[in-house]
Design a protein that fits this description.
The complex is a heterodimer of chains A (155) and B (546). By secondary structure, chain A is an all-alpha fold. Chain A has helices spanning 2-5, 19-23, 36-60, 64-91, 94-101, 103-107, 115-151, and strands at 109-110, 113-114. In chain A, a hairpin with a 2-residue loop joins strand 1 and strand 2. In chain A, helix 4 (64-91) packs antiparallel against helix 7. The radius of gyration of chain A is 26 Å and the shape is elongated. Chain B is 71% helix and 3% strand. Chain B is built from 23 helices and 5 strands. In chain B, a hairpin with a 5-residue loop joins strand 2 (229-232) and strand 3 (238-241). Chain B is globular. Classes of the chains: A mainly alpha (155), B mainly alpha (546). Chain B: One of its GO terms (molecular function) is symporter activity. Chain B: Belongs to the sodium:solute symporter (SSF) (TC 2.A.21) family. Chain B: It is found in: Cell membrane. Chain B: Keywords: Cell membrane, Membrane, Symport, Transmembrane, Transmembrane helix, Transport.
């Protein structure tokens, strides 16, 4: 009940990559002295932040642009999940059917063990993990693409 | 029986569980600590905890017992139990975490804003939780009576009391540490004896798992029948046996054919084929559907996701869980297979669930190593009962304290934990005829037919309405619950009706999805006005801080 209204905790990250490095003073002897070059970079960063913030506002306020962006992301993630489920449906879900229509496949012996035992008892687990690993990578890439789109300096 | 190391091992596991619980109590100070461990648990700890919580009596004992009894067709149980986490990862993990909801009822309110749907979901969470808790307590009772000869209620009461106390005092923060510890204990408890068993099998000149004449007794064995069955003796005589009857077999004598058990090598070794066994194929696909889609609907699995800091962490945690659980499920198969050689008497007694506990003693004899290994396995089995029951109890108690008692205080949570633990204990003490693996399978079917459509459509489809979700849960989940009740207390069925009721998921899950979509489309005007904002919240990358 209370937890439902909690704000979503987020990691403290969010600065564009490299920003922190570039504003750091050049050498140990100049610590504490404001650097003109750093100020220019900071201005540029804050300008980009403004644009990113504007896009975020567009997203949050459900403008047509924001809505279309989110729909695109959801569609991409769903398509990814469905494609990988199809891989599992064929790779694992096809096995009972295969064994049923072609009993000879079930009688094949590999390394002294019947093929169905090897496929189900051993091979299925690395297969599932591999599909999961691929999903995590690809889903994070989809999210990175979305983040880049939203935070792109010129739109 | 007669192993003096078993009781100390079980006591040690119980004491360590309680000790870690109290350590957690010192850290848990606020209601948030109790419910979601303040959401600061690292992915590795969290993954081990999820794995520890998930590997229940059904995984630790039941899978090996089923394989001993039925052979290759039931390998779909461990595959499905693991694949459930893949479905969870693909469709639910990250968006669910980002929704900020803590329980399934919370999700209903966040996504659809309906109080009535929330109440319905609460009822289903409690039903599934209790349905899953009863076989855990029963497994504890059966295991303790198998290894120590104690009365059946002792184990059930022991586990119920320890778990209820621990959850009530420490809450989930404590549970996380306990669960993570118990995952590694369970893996060790199966892996180390498995190495010794494999070596022993080599030393015994690798006896065939499926000898041409069927399994035989290696030593002279006296069998006490535990479940009624019809035996076909080698000379062709057909004999009905009742519980309590004693049968003696000489060394080298073949195991009689037992009704309902795959004794013949071809039945056990090869998958069911088309034509002569369409019902077997239907049951297999039904099982696949229930386990693949049911995991995401289990209340104690979902509740863990709120302890991840963000959606990306939830995703990575799930992947680690998939790997941990997959590694574990390589082991029970080995026990089931070696059980054909070393403990064939279980096929006659019907107590195949005991194979994991009895195999070390049967294969390795009475040496000190064998007794240590047997004690380790018994400790692992207890870890399985304790951890799954803790997780289930935490989630059921969480739902009862917020939705039924209506207060989010620590005292309310403790009261709820006592209520949540007492009901299944009473049930477990009174219904001892249920089969552990079967009931767990039915819990998966109910979860797959009620919460899976709600979660998947709620996360990915804007058109879901509160009425559509409620109709889907009521029709799909209701049909699955009806199948459970008929299986447990109804008349014995045969033929297709028996298959449809014993493995209902293949028709109840599509039914639930169809009803949900159809009713939602008919009530299109009830789509929440803030659906755009909700979808953004569920799917936007964590880094955007929206």
């Amino acid at each position: 009940m209370a937890a439902a209204e909690d704000p979503i905790p987020v990691p403290p990250a969010g600065d564009p990559p490299g920003a922190v490095d570039r504003v750091r003073p050049g050498g140990p002897t100049r610590v504490g002295v404001p650097q003109p070059r750093a100020r220019v970079v900071l201005a540029e960063v804050s300008g980009r932040e403004d644009r990113a913030a504007r896009t975020r506002t567009e997203l949050a306020q459900q403008t047509r642009v924001g809505e279309a962006l989110v729909k695109g992301l959801v569609r991409a993630q769903l398509a990814l999940a469905l494609r990988l489920s199809l891989v599992v449906m064929i790779g694992l879900g096809g096995l009972p059917w295969l064994f049923a229509i072609a009993p000879a496949v079930g009688r094949v012996t590999v390394l002294g063990v019947k093929l169905p035992w090897l496929l189900l008892g051993v091979a299925s687990f690395p297969f599932l993990i591999a599909v999961g690993w691929a999903y995590v990578r690809l889903a994070e890439r989809n999210e990175q693409d979305f983040t880049d789109l939203v935070q792109r300096p010129e739109r | 029986m007669g192993n003096a190391l078993v009781v100390p091992a079980i006591v040690a596991v119980t004491l360590v569980t309680v000790a870690i619980g109290f350590y957690g109590l010192r850290l848990a100070r606020t209601t948030s600590d109790f419910l979601v461990a303040s959401r600061v648990i690292s992915p590795t700890w969290n993954a081990a905890a999820i794995g520890g919580e998930y590997l229940s009596a059904a995984s630790f004992l039941g899978v090996a017992g089923l394989i001993l009894k039925y052979g290759v067709d039931v390998l779909w149980y461990p595959v499905g139990f693991a694949a459930g986490y893949l479905a969870l990862l693909l469709f639910v993990a990250a968006p669910l975490r980002r929704s900020g909801a803590f329980t399934l009822p919370d999700f209903c309110e966040v996504r659809l804003g309906s109080r009535r749907l929330r109440i319905l979901a609460t009822a289903f969470v409690i039903f599934i939780g209790w349905l899953y808790l009863v076989p855990q307590l029963q497994g504890a009772g059966l295991t303790l009576s198998t290894v120590t000869g104690s009365a059946y209620p002792v184990g059930a009461v022991l586990v119920a009391v320890v778990v209820t106390t621990n959850v009530a005092l420490g809450g989930m923060r404590a549970v996380t540490f306990v669960q993570a510890f118990q995952y590694w204990l369970k893996l060790t408890a199966l892996a180390v004896p498995a190495i010794f068993l494999a070596l022993q099998w080599q030393a015994d000149a690798r006896p065939a798992v499926t000898p041409p004449d069927g399994p035989t007794f290696r030593t002279a064995t006296t069998v006490v029948v535990e479940h009624p069955a019809t035996l076909t003796l080698p000379d062709g005589e057909i004999r009905k046996v009742r519980p309590g009857e004693e049968l003696s077999f000489a060394a080298g004598e073949p195991v009689p054919e037992v009704s309902g058990v795959a004794i013949r090598a071809s039945d056990w070794l090869l998958p069911s084929t088309a034509g002569n066994d369409d019902r077997g194929l239907f049951a297999t696909y039904s099982l696949i559907l229930a386990t693949f889609l049911g995991t995401m609907g289990l209340p104690h699995v979902l509740v863990r996701f709120y302890t991840n800091p963000d959606g990306a962490a939830a995703r990575r945690t799930t992947l680690v869980v998939l790997a941990l659980v997959g590694a574990f499920y390589l082991l029970p198969t080995l026990y089931g297979v070696l059980g054909r050689i070393y403990t064939p008497q279980l096929l006659v007694t019907g107590q195949t669930d005991a194979v994991v506990v009895l195999l070390p003693g049967a294969a390795l004899g009475h040496s000190t190593t064998a007794r240590l290994l047997a004690a380790l396995v018994a400790a692992g089995a207890f870890a399985a009962f304790l951890s799954t029951s803790s997780g289930l109890l935490t989630s059921v108690a969480g739902v009862i304290s917020t939705d039924v008692l209506g207060r989010g205080s620590v005292r309310g949570f403790r009261l709820a934990a006592v209520i949540a633990g007492a009901v299944p204990l009473v049930l477990a003490l009174n219904v001892s005829g249920l089969d552990v693996s079967q009931v767990v399978g039915l819990a998966f079917a109910v979860a797959a037919s009620s919460f899976c459509p709600l979660l998947v459509l709620g996360i990915w489809w804007r058109g879901l309405t509160d009425l559509g979700a409620a109709a889907g849960v009521l029709v799909g989940g209701g049909a699955a619950i009806a199948a459970v009740l008929v299986t447990v207390i109804g008349p014995p069925l045969s033929g297709w009706p028996a298959t449809l009721v014993a493995q209902p998921a293949a028709w109840t899950v599509p039914l639930a999805f169809t009803v949900t979509v159809a009713v939602s489309m008919a009530t299109r005007r009830r789509v929440p006005a803030d659906i755009g904002a909700t979808m953004l919240r569920l799917h936007a990358p964590d880094a955007l801080r929206l």
